[in-house]
Structures are given as C-alpha cells and as structure tokens.
Design a protein that fits this description.
single chain, 8 helices, 2 strands, extended
C-alpha cells in the first residue's frame, strides 16, 4: 500500500511537487498517470476558457437575470448559468405549477373523474433543472434559518423528503423572482 498524498493536488504545480507517477514502480502505470495528468491540465484550461466565455456572453444576453439568480444564497456562477440556460425564458410557463413540474420538483398526479389514481412518471421534465435546484437547496442550508426550517420538516417527512420540499420551495421562489424581476428576498422566502 502506498503512503497517502499530503499536498493538495488542485493545481498543476502542486501535482508536479507531489510526483504522483513516481510513486508507482510499473512503467506502464507511470505513463498512464502522466497522460492522465496532462489531460487534466488541458481540461482545466479549457473549462476556465468556456466559463469565462459563458460569463461574458450571459452579461450581454441576460445579465439582469443572471445576477438575479446569483442573489440566491449559495448560488454561484456555474449554478446560475445552469439555471439561466435551462429555464431560458420564464414566460413560457403559464403557472408556477407548470414550472415546478417541468423542473421535476413535484410528482405528476393522475386524476380521473376528480379522483386521484396514483402518480405519473418521475422522468418527465428537465433533469438538469432538478439537479440544479437540488444543489441550490443543499447550498442554501448554510444559512441558520434554512437549518431550522429543514429540522422542522425532517421531523415530519425525513431528511430526503425535506430536501426535496426545500428544492420545490426554491423552484417556486425562482419562478416568482424571474416573473416579477426581483432579487431573492430571504425574509419572504422563509415566511411563506
């Protein structure tokens, strides 16, 4: 068994100091690791370039909406970009229910003659929005108010369901934020 790596491996210079490939005796393994590290370094540069390009493009196309989404605690550049590009235009959703359904934040119900007959498929809607709202809800938990709210919901529904409820609540808030063209209001969010 190899000793653990003590240095941070986040940047290319740190990886060079750690000498990851030299820790292995087999030449094939060392070569494979060297190739993988070169790929990681090149992907790092490409990802930074793409992020910079998207951030500049979004400032021109939908800058106000982008910064409005960034006003949500825990939502950074990447999450705001995902939300912005997956929602595209909030006006295409007639109601908040249509939006949260499209974002897979609620389960569709089947109804016949006014009676509920079960639930529909879980895979209808946009999986990327579902992921983004789940991430945003998790990042929102850094706030003390969010922790208290989640603790109350966990007692009644359990942790997983409580996080799903928080994600749906956040989805509704985003819908109204974008409809009314307002920034995130934490006081209104936690009181509703």
């Amino acid at each position: 068994m190899l000793p653990s790596l003590s240095a941070t491996r986040g940047s290319a210079s740190n990886r060079a100091n750690v000498q990851v490939a030299e820790r292995f005796t087999d030449a094939k393994v060392r070569k494979n690791i060297d190739v993988d590290l070169v790929l990681v370094d090149s992907y790092d540069k490409l990802i930074v370039d793409v992020e910079r390009y998207l951030e500049q493009a979004v400032r021109v196309e939908g800058g106000a909406t982008f910064f409005r989404l960034r006003s949500i605690p825990g939502v950074g550049k990447i999450l705001a970009l995902v939300l912005l590009y997956e929602i595209h235009n909030i006006g295409r959703f007639a109601t908040v229910g249509d939006f949260v359904s499209y974002a897979r934040l609620v389960r569709p119900e089947h109804e016949s003659a006014g009676k509920k007959c079960g639930f529909g498929q879980k895979k209808i809607g946009n999986a990327h929005l579902r992921w983004a709202f789940a991430e945003a809800a998790t990042l929102l938990l850094r706030e003390s108010e969010a922790k208290r709210w989640l603790a109350r919901k966990e007692k009644k529904h359990g942790k997983g369901k409580a996080l799903g409820i928080l994600a749906a609540k956040l989805g509704r808030a985003v819908y109204w934020m974008l409809r009314r063209q307002e920034d995130f209001d934490a006081q209104r969010f936690w009181q509703s």
